[in-house]
Amino acid sequence: MKISGCVEEIINNKNSLSNILAEEAITQIKKGRVNKPNVVWIEGTGCSGNTISLLNANYPDVIYLLNNMINLKFSNSLMTCDGEKAYEIFLETIKEEFILVVEGAISTRENGLFNVIASYKGKKITALEVVKISGYKAKHVIAVGTCASFGGVSKANPNPSESKSAKEILGRDVINLPGCPCHPDWIIGTLAYLITNDGIELDDEGRPLLFYGFTIHDFCPRRTYFNNRIFAQNVGEPYCMFRLGCRGPVTRTDCPTRRWNSGVNWPIGDNTPCIGCANAYFPDGMEPFIRT
Amino acid sequence: MGRIVVIDPITRMSGFLGIEVEVEGDKIIDAKAVGNLFRGFEKILKGRHALDAVYLTERICGICSSAHSVASTLALEDALEITPSLNVRYIRDLIHAFDIIQNHIRHFYLFTVPDYVKFDSINPVSETCHKDYRLPVNLNNKIQGDYIKSIEYSKLAHVGVSILGGKSPHNHGILPGVVTGSLDRFKIEELKSLINKIKDFVDNYMLEDVDIISNYYNDYFEKGDTYNNFLSFGLFDYEDFSYLKPSVIINGIRQEFDKDKIRENIAYSWYKIEDGQIVEDINKEGAYSFVKSPRYDKWAMEVGPLARMILSGRYKLQNSTMDRITARCLEASVILKIMQVLIERIEPVEERIKYQFKDKAEGIGLTDTTRGALLHFVSLERDIINGYDIITPSAWNFSPRDEISFGTAEKALMGTKINDVNDIVEVGRIVRSFDPCISCATHVTIRR
Amino acid sequence: MEDICKLKEDLERILERIKELYSMEFLTLCPLGKEHYKNMIIDSIDQAYLKLEETLNILRQNEGKRELKEFTLEELANFDGRNGKPAYVAVNGTVYDVTLIASWGGGSHFGVLAGKDVTEEYNKCHENENKLSKLEVVGKLKGSNL
């Protein structure tokens, strides 16, 4: 599936896009053309919200993802093993081909000691170290969430944990999937695309065009209100949120059509402004969230 | 002198926690809970716009985000002298309740169950490193099936948050004085059906599963007991009905709750005081955690579902690993019942608010949430945040020791008998029964 | 200025007249009547056309002469985009209107707030770009030598 062919798909039918991609991936896996890739999911300085968001995935859901699409070998939030055994699984997995998923920013303070993620043979293993030893070897590095992609809330001024994004740490190509949290479809859709293709087309900030190709403003259902200058004066009013500080015009995601949690709602649908959570400048450059 | 065993990471939780135990013979004689993550939200919040606190503090925690939006909203309402209408409180509590249910279902199935049930498939749950699995095949399979079902129902709970709050995690709907979403009769019916569906699952599957597990692992009613100190800031507390008012039990005896007795101690935490400011110091002698030690008076308290169930008189006064797990599941059912009351009371009326700021203001927000008692404190200068403090539930439960006592979870580990010293499964089980959330716990700053 | 006011009154009168004629044309059942009203509407539009041309001419003449309003920093601070107020910013002494510029939601733009002299921030972020020509000029900053 080439991107150009997908643009129409994105516009017309965003809801089923990750589903289509996932089905394509499964077919290829079943036909033996590609293997279920090993995936290592490293959490750093963040809130684990992207893991929780992934669990909210609808079609395909997370069980389908784990059973049919990928071998998730390491995930602090989900794996049964703990302690040294857990870390050994990580060490084993990175000997072969794998995809690295980073969630959360990487703390560099005190050489990473402000975010220790394991103890192994009496030594403290920092998130910084883990990302470095796995990041260069990985077939793909996917930064899930705004913290991993750009630093996000963890890196917010004055950046007390001296956090950096995955790309700043590794200096290699990283697929950024910003969003606070990242929408589950963006994660699963990207994984599915990487299973069936060698790469995925990215914009100049490393985001897949598939999901981050247009601004929220472009497809906002309240765009008519903007064009006709009908603005909400307070949160809770069902009009254009622009004068309250809406970041839709500067934020590239497909929220207006994809929406959240099985598509039932989204922030502007809840009569509040978009706060630009998928923006590289979130949160410092996106504040005040609500201009009163 | 015993053997030191470090279990780090304690997986199946939010954030990073390591447990260091000293084992002598078959007993744990010392335990340290090591909070391994630092974020420093209170420093991030200083100088930002007052209302931004709500959306920013949510991002402390991905699994319990609504809790922080509720607590920060309460703190701002206190500071700005806003009294929300009853309808707003009902809807806000409903969002919060949906999120608590999401937490309880996910914690029980995704985080707790793999400790007791052996999985045949589903990486990374099927890869195990312990041997102590006791369930007969048919029950083992049943709970495996329910694990998969639980994904669906916990997701539905988040759909509930989203209908009322825009999205989840990190909802947009809760703000001081208002809930922003437009409600109508159809949405209310939609929510009712969601609640009934989830309640059906909790009552018919989750409660049965916890019963099965507690039958086959009944030795865990003897393991993991804490001091008999329980604390709650109250939850779903209305004039004509209430789940729980703010309450305290110390050494098994009920006392009057007084919020001025809340203190913080940093003796064993990686912090020091410099020019009246609290600063991080990873090289501090004797310190071993980024979590600070909140104390009520001088006591290390247990907070969470078990504490709430005991304080509200719905559970007998006893505590252990399995009591904690059971109380969590029972509480899910109680809260769903409360949600059925709340949803009958809400009206689809819309309210608006204009925020007025004073030159100087302070406010405190106290609420109970999934993992226990949560405190937000804000001090404002006009519409700018001058200071912000957060004491999270996991800070109560996973604090390091102080001069006189152990942290609550450390106490739970102390004296535990280990069945197989080469395969220490007890520590993970005991610790997880508290539902640790270290991404929350390490933001605490010192109170004035 | 007086001319403009008179033209405004004329245009309003013609507009009222056209509205009236439209409803008459709609209400009448006689085909001849309909034709009659249509012709009258076209006449009115012709009148309006002439008036509009006149108006534009006057506006064009005044364009060059228009006095730029002077803002002190205190006055400028009022236009911060809050509570429905317009959002103005000053760059290099000129005051621009950013109220409806898409990237200036609520009078704030990547952490920069409206109602201020933002020359420094502008030069830092848009040094080699010309973003200003697209903005409407509303005045100049007092004390600037423009």
From TrEMBL, chain A:
It comes from Caloramator australicus RC3. The keyword Disulfide bond does not apply. It is found in: Cell envelope. [3Fe-4S] cluster binds at residues 255, 274, 277. [4Fe-4S] cluster 1 binds at residues 47, 147, 180. It comes from the Bacteria. Keywords: 3Fe-4S, 4Fe-4S, Iron, Iron-sulfur, Metal-binding, Oxidoreductase, Signal. This is [Ni/Fe] hydrogenase, group 1, small subunit. The keyword Oxidoreductase applies. SUPFAM superfamilies: HydA/Nqo6-like (SSF56770). Residues 47-194 form the NADH:ubiquinone oxidoreductase-like 20kDa subunit domain. Its cofactor is [3Fe-4S] cluster; [4Fe-4S] cluster. Its main location: other. InterPro entries: Cytochrome-c3_hydrogenase_C, NADH_UbQ_OxRdtase-like_20kDa, NiFe-Hase_small_C_sf, NiFe_Hase_small_N_sf, NiFe_hydrogenase_ssu. Residues 212-289 form the Cytochrome-c3 hydrogenase C-terminal domain. Belongs to the [NiFe]/[NiFeSe] hydrogenase small subunit family.
UniProtKB/TrEMBL annotation, chain B:
Signal peptide: none annotated. Fe cation binds at residues 64, 440. It is found in: Cell envelope. InterPro entries: Ni-dep_hyd_lsu (IPR001501), Ni-dep_hyd_lsu_Ni_BS (IPR018194), NiFe-Hase_large (IPR029014), NiFe/NiFeSe_hydrgnase_LSU (IPR050867). Ni(2+) binds at residues 61, 64, 437. SUPFAM superfamilies: HydB/Nqo4-like. One of its GO terms (molecular function) is nickel cation binding. Its cofactor is Fe cation; Ni(2+). Mg(2+) binds at residues 42, 390, 443. Keywords: Iron, Magnesium, Metal-binding, Nickel, Oxidoreductase. GO terms for cellular component: cell envelope. Belongs to the [NiFe]/[NiFeSe] hydrogenase large subunit family. Heterodimer of a large and a small subunit. PANTHER family: HYDROGENASE-2 LARGE CHAIN, UPTAKE HYDROGENASE LARGE SUBUNIT. This is [Ni/Fe] hydrogenase, group 1, large subunit.
From TrEMBL, chain C:
Transmembrane segments: none annotated. Residues 1-62 form a coiled coil. It holds the Pfam family Cyt-b5. This is Conserved protein. InterPro entries: Cyt_B5-like_heme/steroid-bd, Cyt_B5-like_heme/steroid_sf, MAPR/NEUFC/NENF-like. It comes from Caloramator australicus RC3. It comes from the Bacteria. Keywords: Coiled coil. Belongs to the cytochrome b5 family. MAPR subfamily.
